[in-house]
Amino acid sequence: MSQPTNDPVPDPGSGTRRQRVKLSDVARAAGVDLSTASRLIRNQSANYRPETVERVNRVAKELGYRTNQQARALRLGRQQAIAMLVPDLDNFGFTRVLRGAQEVCEERGFTLLISEIDPSSSNQNSRLASLEGRVDGILVAYGSASDTGITGGLDQLGLPTVLVQRGAPDATASVLFDEEANAAAMVDYLVGLGHRSVAHVSGALSTDTGIRRERGFNAALIRHGLEIPADWRADGAWTIDGGRAATFAIMNSASGHPTALSVDSLVEGIGALSALRELNVAVPGEVSVIAIDEHLVAAHTSPPLTTVRLDQRALGRRAAEMLFDRLDGAAGQRVIIDSAAEIVPRESTAPPRT
Amino acid sequence: MSQPTNDPVPDPGSGTRRQRVKLSDVARAAGVDLSTASRLIRNQSANYRPETVERVNRVAKELGYRTNQQARALRLGRQQAIAMLVPDLDNFGFTRVLRGAQEVCEERGFTLLISEIDPSSSNQNSRLASLEGRVDGILVAYGSASDTGITGGLDQLGLPTVLVQRGAPDATASVLFDEEANAAAMVDYLVGLGHRSVAHVSGALSTDTGIRRERGFNAALIRHGLEIPADWRADGAWTIDGGRAATFAIMNSASGHPTALSVDSLVEGIGALSALRELNVAVPGEVSVIAIDEHLVAAHTSPPLTTVRLDQRALGRRAAEMLFDRLDGAAGQRVIIDSAAEIVPRESTAPPRT
DNA sequence: TTCTACCGTACAATCGATTGTATCGAGTAC
DNA sequence: GTACTCGATACAATCGATTGTACGGTAGAA
User: Fold this and answer.
1) Bases of strand D lying below 7 A from some protein CB
2) What residues does B291 pair with on adjacent strands?
3) Residue B244 confidence (pLDDT)
4) CB of B49 under 7 A from strand D?
5) pLDDT value, residue B144
6) Does some domain include residue A188?
């Protein structure tokens, strides 16, 4: 190893890498001690002479000093960064959660790093491990897939974690929507239009969110005094193809077909529209369709899809805040926040044909 | 500050944070020097006794030792991580590029961190700066928006950068598709179906990619001996709404309307279908539509959209590889790779009505 | 005039790991 | 028997920043 210990002359050969200015350079140039420079750079100027403060800061600027985050992180024992894990960036649900979390991070001077980790892939644990030492905590946005493996890996990491829009039996720290209410909102809307025959394309019933929406759907039916055949409920697995398959199953069921479809996610809703088109079923003429998750594409499907907008930004914000609390030593809780569910009416819903 | 310097007893009060095992703990427990432990943990066992090697590794495992990445990064001066900047995770184009880069990172033992930075937002520079010291290099996937600000901030960072599917006049390091060929592929396909009146919904003409696709479109027309009116070209700005507006403009143009639309991106294609539906124009009966960017949603629009699939995974891979080369000191280059453009025929295209 | 405060700044330990070089001891050759 | 070699491991500097405490000097009080 070449070690020109006291030769600060930048190597002229490697044009790319300019010598990095460090704190000791600033201190020397300003004629003060390293510790003085350190404090003044960080505005801990309480006891210092204004003159010194000014000089140090000026020199730092002139030299283009920027603190080395690795060194800082090592000394402080923290990274000032958190990670958000998502299973699938192709799913429409995550971006607004991400942005909410991003906002909070920015307010706190933290960096948000995103990592896509497919929970079904084999190397997820190594990817998780690679996050170690880079972040102080983890937000897990896994609403849409089975994820038993992930939680195991997370435990090993020993980092504070908050689950977002997804519960787990053993997880204390999680931020959830009132999914029962969200599902019920769709039924209420359809019933309000006059529908009495409402089928349900659910999210994956292996997931917490799927189960709770199913429960909300059922509760709403009972509240409205409705009963539907068992084969009007189908698991759409949180995917386009799953939604398609579920819709085919419902429409071809022995019980005849419903006048409306309550769908647990936008991607499944797109699948449902696709199936109905293939079956030559008019939407909303013969069957109305409504789905959870608002996104710009919903305005441009055929027909434009009526959706339920959830306040996912707020979800992301709240989750990030809880994570920061945990970093400060607070215990994790299971919090259910108001999703501020709002129907965005478009052309896929209408009163049933009489 | 509480400094129980030589009191390694973990505080029983803070149940959350278990005392972290460090290398010196392992060394002590194994009865060897820190340096020995360091080397053996990293399999630099060249000169060591097999017995010692075994003992150190066993102790490390027993104690659950995991190397502190911050300390390692500080010592080594590198992070073993790179970042990928995307402007908008809602755009369908990025996920496969991301995954390609992810693959290469994994092969090299690097971590890929994703960061969404809206190039039009005001705080982009602070977000960029927050990446400093966390990553060794940056992949910039900005194909779809103006980004003059970003490049400025990147320069200041002084990190090796590679631009992905996006050129810049002054950028040496970039990996690009042959966009002229991609655009031409759409025209060829439409002409092959018998169309002679082909309009163009282009990507934002303020972007490099937009300009090059426009050029390819024009070249293809000439090659086929076709000429079209000026108002059959409209800028769709890489967005759904832009694509809609551009389609309205073309369809309402004084020159009458074309029999086919060649659209530069899937999102704009969705906008185009939306506009055509609103205009009661039959697709593909009156107007065929084809767009660049394959994605599952294209199979489920109405009608399903014929698309051009580009090998974005390869793009991501190549870009990551170039970035690693740059980290090793290689100069950046401007590389154009084969996009392996492939038409995915669906129901939005058909021969023109005679 | 001498002692006490206090102000402004410097000293030095520390975070956890990496790595060039020194050292110790045993075996071998003469 | 002495010197030399080499194998196995220890020593110590270092990466760049943070922070508790010590220290020197000046001013006000006695």
Assistant:
1) 7-20
2) B263, B307
3) 96
4) yes
5) 43
6) yes
Residue B225 domain flag: yes
Contacts of A36 (CB under 8 A, 6+ apart): A27, A48, A52, A56
Domain shared by B237 and B274, yes or no: yes
* Chain A stretch 179-238, residues whose beta carbon is closer than 8 A to a beta carbon of chain B: none
pTM score:
0.84
The domain of B163 spans 78-176+313-334
Q: List the single best residue of B114, B273, B313 to mutate versus A (max A Cβ within 10 A).
A: B114
For residues B317 and B168, membership in a common domain is answered with: yes
Q: Looking at the structure, do residues A291 and A200 belong to the same domain, yes or no? A: yes
Residue A125, chain B, CB below 8 Å: the answer is no
pLDDT in tens, A223-282: 999 999 999 999 999 889 999 999 999 999 999 999 999 999 999 999 999 999 999 999
Instruction: State how far the alpha carbon of B194 is from the alpha carbons of B189, B283, B315, in Å.
Output: 9, 16, 32
Same domain, A145 and A207: no
Q: How far apart are CA A78 and CA A72, in angstroms?
A: 8
Query: B-chain residues within 8 Å CB-CB of A297?
Result: 240, 270, 297
Q: What is the pLDDT of residue B342?
A: 96
Q: Looking at the complex, does the CB of residue A91 fall below 8 Å from at least one CB of chain B?
A: no
List the beta strands (DSSP E) in chain B.
81-86, 111-116, 137-140, 161-164, 174-177, 198-202, 233-235, 260-263, 288-292, 306-309, 334-337, 342-344
CA distances from B107 to A85, A130, A153, A187, A345 (A): 20, 13, 20, 49, 47
